[in-house]
Amino acid sequence: MKVLSVHGTAAIVAACLPFNLACAQETTPMAIPEVVVTADRSPESIERTGSAINVVHGADLAKSNPLSMVDALRAVPGLDVTETGGPGATASVRLRGTNPGQTLVLIDGVRANDPGAAGGDYDFSMFPAGAIDRVEVLRGPQSALYGSDAIGGVINIITKKGSGPAQFSLQTEAGSYRTAMANGSLLGSQGPWSYAVTAAGQRSDGFSRYGYRIPAIEARFPNLDSDGFDRMAGSARLGYDAGQGYRAEAGLMSSRTRAAYDQATGAFPDTPSEASRLFQQGWGRVAVDTLGGAVTHSLNVFANRTERVFNDVTFKTNTLPANTTSTISEFIGERVGSEYQANIQMGAFGSLVAGAKIEHENAATFSSRLLPTPLPRAPGLAGQQETHSAFALWQIPIMQRLILSAGGRVDDVVDVDRFATWRTTAAYLIPETGSKLRASAGTGGKAPTLYQLYAPTYGNPNLQSEESIGWDAGIDQSFLNGRATVSVTGFNNRLNNLIEFDSATMRYFNVARAATSGVEVGAELGVLPGWMVVKVAYTYLDAKDLRTNLTLQRRPPHSARVAFAITPLPQWLIEPRVFVVSRRFSGSNETSPLAPYARLDIYTDYRIDANWRVFARMENVTDTPYQEVLNYGTTGRAFYGGFNVTW
Questions:
Q1: Residue 137 and residue 21: Cα distance in Å, rounded?
Q2: Interatomic CA distance for residues 556 and 543, integer angstroms
Q3: Partner of 64 for a Cys bridge, out of 72, 402, 508, 622, CB 3.0 to 4.6 A?
Q4: Does a cis peptide bond (omega within 30 degrees of 0) precede residue 372?
């Protein structure tokens, strides 16, 4: 076993308060959420945390593409998204230039990364946006708080929770590519009980994932087939709080997505391949206040399961069945565990969060063949592991202006590896000038996945955990009595012991090193009070493979989003959005360059009365051709419209 260690010291100066990227219909410029729960594992005013965190609300998701929750996340500085051929395809998210599997994804605080995936990442194409209350994006190494995978940061998806009188909401949309969707929710509370139920259905004929709107490919293959998808999803959340010092809550969710895709290789790259993805999760949590509320004990039990089934179709010399190969590949990942946490209020000495966690994971793969000669289902990977963790975080306010925190964690992956991580933050408030200085530093770790350890032929049981150290620092400045803010954050991360696949030996090894650094900028300005708000998000990223000093694949050096929220009438919103991405490389070692592009979208909605709202959106208004992944299609000019009713 190996203990992750870090040498040297990190100088911490300050970091910015991330501005709210939401654009409410009312043009209040600084609609900053008062409380976040991800930054310090407990409710905390966003103005007092030293972490770099953004919040994307469900209302913002509703104004984006409901078929793909990641479209709204594109507005978060430091976060990059790639989809391999539009909604329904695999959607990968990178924080500050790290790999997708190096970002920890939580759903209601429960780890959701797929134990059966080779890189251990979470596929965002599986989650329905209609179930989400908000998404908290915590940037920078966070393993001291959350353990393995949190090298680039943490994305916590928080589902809807009921309160107040019963309220039913229904939203529908239809438009281009024969797209249709509907989602509904019932939220409310009765006495000490609260409840929330959501359901969603979506479908689209889509477009060919391979080659769509790429002239050279369409000239060679003029009859590309459309690759559509459909999704059914639902969630439920029930809570009990009688105000007597104990609380209980439970949640369930399930989402199944079926999507066509293309092999995108060989003489016949446009294939009728199909994928089915299922994600299910359940959790229960109880909390008890003791010592007059000074100490809160909470216990969380959870389980989730991810199933991915791919019917890979390939053709040889022609598309006749005798020359067709159809293979079924199954990937199953399961997780079950429990976590205890104590929140201790210590008066002048601040607060302490401490806890422990046990988590068990299983992964299994199977394969079978349908064509040309059927073969029975055969097992492949069969791996499991158990992780024991202990953590603590001490938060210390000093003279009301300075808030410090320091914490650490040990994760013991039984019979695999043990690593220790640390984290510290500082926030300094200057209310006289509307300024906030802020900083964070820490280390990250990622245990090898079950696939990397135990996959037949490819696995290496001697792998060690990936390591990182990083810091960020910056300033958030408010102007014009809060009508405008500018936030600037610089960051730097170094990653060591990274796991890569060696094509020569056909096995995984700890061989790679990388470094990422950059600047994240956010600005929100009430240009014309009550009429227009301008929001800007910009990221500069330098992501290098330290062995070759070449840029890492699919990491654009520059990306920016500018949105104008215009309200010509109090009930009418018009919001043009421009997204700009610089030249980058789709392949490793700076191969397969992709051209820069700028995409314009427009969203508008009109509130008829307190219950009814109609909306419309246009994607890629200028019909700009662009690619996120080499040879994979992206939307052309597309129109959508619908309504939302609440009663």
A1: 12
A2: 9
A3: 72
A4: yes
CA-nearest of 80, 84, 83 to 93 is 80
Cα–Cα separations (whole angstroms), residue 47 to 237, 341, 418, 469: 29, 24, 35, 25
Q: Is 180 helix (H, G, I), strand (E, B) or coil?
A: strand
Question: In 3D, which of 502, 383, 354 has the Cα closest to residue 447?
Answer: 383
Residue 11 has pLDDT above 90, yes or no: no
Rounded to 5 degrees, φ, ψ at 321 are: -55, -35
Q: Which residue has the higher pLDDT, 70 or 302?
A: 302
Other Cβ atoms closer than 10 A to 446: 30
What are the structure tokens assigned to 146, written together?
Answer: 């959350």
Q: What is the mean pLDDT of the chain?
A: 92
Contacts of 599 (CB under 8 A, 6+ apart): 578, 579, 580, 619, 620, 622, 624, 626
Cα–Cα distance between 51 and 429 in angstroms, integer?
14
* Model pTM score: 0.92
For 347-374, b where at least 16 C-beta lie within 10 A, e where not — what string? Answer: eeebbbbbbebebbbbbbbbbebeeeee
Could you give all domains of the chain from N- to C-terminal order, each with its CATH number?
Answer: 35-646 (2.40.170.20)
Among candidate residues 62, 74, 11, 19, the one with its CA nearest the CA of residue 599: 74
Tokens of 489: 């954050």
Average pLDDT of the residues in 222-251:
96
Instruction: Return the SS3 of 487.
Output: strand
Which of 597, 536, 605, 529 lies closest to 564 in space, CA to CA?
536
Q: Does residue 23 carry a pLDDT above 60?
A: no
| Number of neighbours of residue 344 by Cβ within 10 angstroms | 16
Q: For tokens 């190996």, what's the residue?
A: 2
Residue 52, C-beta contacts closer than 8 angstroms, at least 6 positions apart: 15, 16, 18, 78, 138, 139, 140, 438, 440, 472, 474, 489, 491, 520
pLDDT of 98 > 80? The answer is yes
On the question of pLDDT at 268 being above 70, the answer is: yes
pLDDT-based confidence at residue 34 (cuts at 50, 70, 90): low
